[in-house]
Amino acid sequence: MLDAVIRWSIRNRLLVVAAAGLLLVAGTITAVRMPVDVFPDLTAPTVTVLTEAHGMAPEEVETLVTFPIETAVNGATGVRRVRSSTSQGISIVWVEFDWGTDIYRARQIVNEKLQLVSATIPQGAGPPVLAPISSIMGEIMLIAITGDESVSEMEMRSLAEWTVRRRLLAVPGVSQVIPLGGEVRQYQVRVDPARLAAYEVTLQDVLAAAEGSNVNASGGVYMEGGQEYLIRGTGRVQTVEDIGATVVVVRGGTPVLIRDVADVGVGPGVPIGRGSANAAPAVILSVQKQPDTNTLDLTERIDATLADIEQTLPPGMEINRGIFRQASFIDTAVDNVLEALRDGALLVVVILFLFLWSWRTTFISVLAIPLSLVTAVFALKLFGITINTMTLGGMAIAIGALVDDAVIDVENVFRRLRENRHLPASEQKSVYDVIFLGSKEIRASIITATFIISIVFLPLFFLSGIEGRMLRPLGLAY
């Protein structure tokens, strides 16, 4: 078969050159558009289940919430491991599926199991919810929102929570944005026990009044002259004064208001952790991406969104994007590998020219490098593998072997052509026959040597778990 391929290529050399040029162009475009990451995706399909249980101790959450959820999802189809973490007021369960499981199918399976366990969740605990799809390598950026002395931590947290986070969640490819640090703004009702006793009001009365006051009520529809007018009672509070003016009870025809038994104001919530940047108080935003998203492209879109937000920032506030950027690591890693590829290619050109002393044969041999690389890119695209340090490393290792094969073939053909020119005219063969025979002469040795070298990478394909996910792309790229 290889004999037929070589004969056809020699006879249709212009078509082969045109196809090679088209392959280079298409391969370059495909490589530019492929996702780029530091490492291969090491995330097994995982569904995260979150359940809030306000007021419960960790032991209660573990017994009444976490354990029933774990029991329900343990026997689900394709589940290979279930992990959990329980703390005060919250339960987190990670359900890991077999490699290759479609994540949306996995979420559907978990969701069906949660329907069965929802009835057993105690009253006071929220229903189990599925967290957004993310990746173990998904934290691509940490953003710090800082301010000068005129800016409070509550103002920084409010900006991060209600402006920056919502704008970033609207960027395609962003899975989740988690704010850390700062002071959470709260409308607080600080009840005074002495005033409660004086007005003969219980704490439960105050809680019921505060909860019942912040609602709107529908009054139906009033029709007149063919027009419908919606009737509703607007009772949602807008200010601190509205909360304070809420009626708790009526004593002797006189209403007792919330402000009579409590101090109402705006204050920070109970802090859970602190955030800082460069030893100054700050709010840190952790940006996580969706799986199979190009980190470099997503980082550019996030930077563009942050640039728009910076134009409307309140005085004294700044956005620091340089805390952590996964794109910087990717750029550095890819640049290092590309630098090794470039240096290797230059050394190959110099050494080939010095030994063969012919620009033509040197160019033909070196041409094997870009053609082989773009062909490898197409193979990676077919297998759904991203460009990362592992795949680039496999290509860099393979350059020596593929150039060696090309050099042996071209050098033998070059030598046979030179010998043919020195023969008497009656004994000279056609150039095409010399090229074919010169290539055929050493082809079996080249193929055998290449397969022997490739066997070294065969054990990589039998690795399992994280090791296999990490090193298998290197062997495949080679």
The N- to C-terminal Cα distance equals 24 Å
Describe the largest sheet: 4 strands, antiparallel
Query: How are the strands ordered across the major sheet?
Result: 2-3-1-4
Alpha carbon gyration radius: 34 Å
Percent of residues in helices? 40-55%
Strand segment count: 16
The number of helices is: 16
Oligomer: single chain
Structural class: alpha+beta
Q: Shape, please?
A: elongated
Stretches with pLDDT under 50, minimum 5 residues: none
Roughly what is the average pLDDT, rounded to an integer? 86
> How big a fraction of the residues is strand?
15-25%
Architecture overview:
The chain is elongated. It has helices at 2-11, 13-33, 58-74, 103-117, 153-169, 193-199, 203-213, 240-244, 258-261, 295-310, 326-356, 359-366, 368-382, 389-421, 431-455, 465-477, and strands at 46-52, 79-87, 90-97, 129-130, 139-147, 174-180, 185-191, 217-224, 227-233, 247-251, 254-257, 262-268, 276-277, 280-281, 283-289, 317-325. Helix content is 52%, strand content 21%. Helix 11 packs antiparallel against helix 12, helix 12 packs antiparallel against helix 14 and helix 13 runs antiparallel to helix 14 (389-421). The model has no long low-confidence stretch (mean pLDDT 86). It starts with a helix and ends with a helix. Strands 2-3-1-4 form a four-stranded antiparallel sheet. Strands 6-15-5-16 form a four-stranded antiparallel sheet. It has a two-stranded antiparallel sheet with strand order 7-12. By secondary structure, it is of the alpha+beta class. The longest helix is centred in the C-terminal third of the chain and has 33 residues, at 389-421. It has 16 helices and 16 strands. Strand 13 (276-277) and strand 14 form a beta hairpin.
